[in-house]
UniProtKB/TrEMBL annotation:
One of its GO terms (biological process) is glucose metabolic process. The active site is at H179, E313. InterPro entries: Ald1_epimerase_CS (IPR018052), Aldose_1-epimerase (IPR015443), Aldose_1/G6P_1-epimerase (IPR008183), Gal_mutarotase_sf_dom (IPR011013), Galactose_mutarotase-like (IPR047215), GH-type_carb-bd (IPR014718). Keywords: Carbohydrate metabolism, Isomerase. This is Aldose 1-epimerase. One of its GO terms (cellular component) is cytoplasm. It catalyses: alpha-D-glucose = beta-D-glucose. NCBIfam families: PRK11055.1 (NF008277). Beta-D-galactose binds at H179, S180, Y181, D252. Its EC number is 5.1.3.3. Pathway: Carbohydrate metabolism; hexose metabolism.
Length: 350
């Protein structure tokens, strides 16, 4: 396997590096030490043509100006926190509000917007990038000093493993995910509406007008949210279901997974033959179909528009701190936070 690095830009006078790993099959992963951003994932189609299957930019300035978390690790807490506030161990905490009245993805200076330290580990069948960051007590309003490690393991099986680890010196909240936008057509030749998705999930979480969980779990049976037999992404934007309409004609919903680490998610583009299998230790995945991607900028020469990508954000349910029946993201002193998500790329025959 080949590993290289180059300077990608600067943040506060410090260099930002891009790391590129290529396996013997020609698959390529590129990522930054800024926000752990995955900038490129280059994989073959059924004709052996290698193309990029994630949304991203070629300059740091574009990420800072336009990016809706393209490829980044978000945290301390992924998703929205209602009113940017929560109570923990009898103490009230106020977080910055960066989406209307709510706190989103760790705030304006969350993990997606900081420089991480990197350690490269080369082995015969894989290369690991260990990203580490110490989040000080009070950062973005959260309690506790948190030591975080995110490890990208890229191997000869065309797999990307992401391990998330954290410890804290006092009780706090931690819920991490990667926010890559996938488009298996390759180099954004088409939108994702004709992508087919399988999700092993019987229930999704209802959202309110602020896209926050109401706390209600809804059954997928008989709705456009039933992906158990696979269905096209386009079914959501075409649907008159109130939940599809609410989020801008599509999906931006947490789905509760029936099982873990057993091919519970599969995204396929029949035209190219590319398929992506996702396995996770997490209890849920937020499916976002890029319904509200703003226009007015280019993504590597392609004008931005809705439905250019699909996010599969494996995590604990959003805003769980306000819903005691959800799996919680409370991390206590002495506890170890660890989750794992696998992205495996395959090619389907015609």
């Amino acid at each position: 396997m080949k590993v290289s690095q180059e300077v990608f830009g600067q943040v506060d006078g410090k260099p930002v590096h891009q790391f590129t790993i290529e396996n013997e099959h020609g698959m390529v992963l590129s990522c930054l030490d800024y926000g752990c951003i995955i900038t490129k994932l280059i994989v073959p189609d059924r004709k052996g043509i290698f193309e990029n299957v994630v949304l991203g930019f070629d300059t740091l300035e574009e990420y800072q100006k336009y990016s809706p978390y393209f490829g980044a690790v978000v945290g301390r807490v992924a998703g929205r926190i209602a009113n940017g506030a929560f109570e923990l161990d009898g103490e009230n905490y106020q977080l910055p509000k960066n989406e209307k009245n709510n706190h989103l993805h760790g705030g304006p200076h969350g993990f997606s917007h900081v420089l991480w330290d990197v350690n490269i580990i080369e082995e015969q069948e894989s290369v690991s990038l260990e990203f580490t960051y110490r989040s000080p007590d009070g950062e973005a309003g959260y309690p506790g000093t948190v030591d975080v490690k995110v490890t990208y393991i890229f191997n000869e099986k065309n797999e990307l493993h992401i391990h998330y680890d954290a410890t804290t010196d006092q009780t706090t909240l931690v819920n991490l995910t990667n926010h890559s936008y996938f488009n298996l057509s390759g180099n954004l030749k088409r939108d994702v509406l004709n992508h087919t998705l399988f999700l092993d999930s019987d229930q999704f979480i209802e959202l309110n007008d602020e896209l926050l969980p109401t706390g209600q779990r809804l059954n997928v049976e008989g709705t456009p949210f039933d992906f158990r037999a696979s269905r096209k992404i386009a079914d959501g934007p075409k649907s008159s279901h109130p939940q599809n309409q609410l989020v801008g004609k599509g999906y931006d919903h947490p789905f509760l997974l029936n099982k873990q680490q057993s091919e519970e998610i599969k995204l396929t583009d029949e035209a190219s033959g590319r398929a992506l299998i996702v396995e996770t230790s997490e209890p849920s995945v937020v499916l976002y179909t890029c319904n509200q991607l703003e226009e007015g900028f280019d993504i590597r020469g392609v004008p931005s528009r809705p439905y250019l990508g699909v996010c599969l954000e494996t995590q604990s349910p959003p805003d769980s701190i306000h819903h005691s029946h959800f799996q919680q993201c409370i991390l206590e002193k002495g506890q170890d936070y660890h989750t794992h998500t696998l992205f495996k790329f395959m090619v389907k025959d015609e």
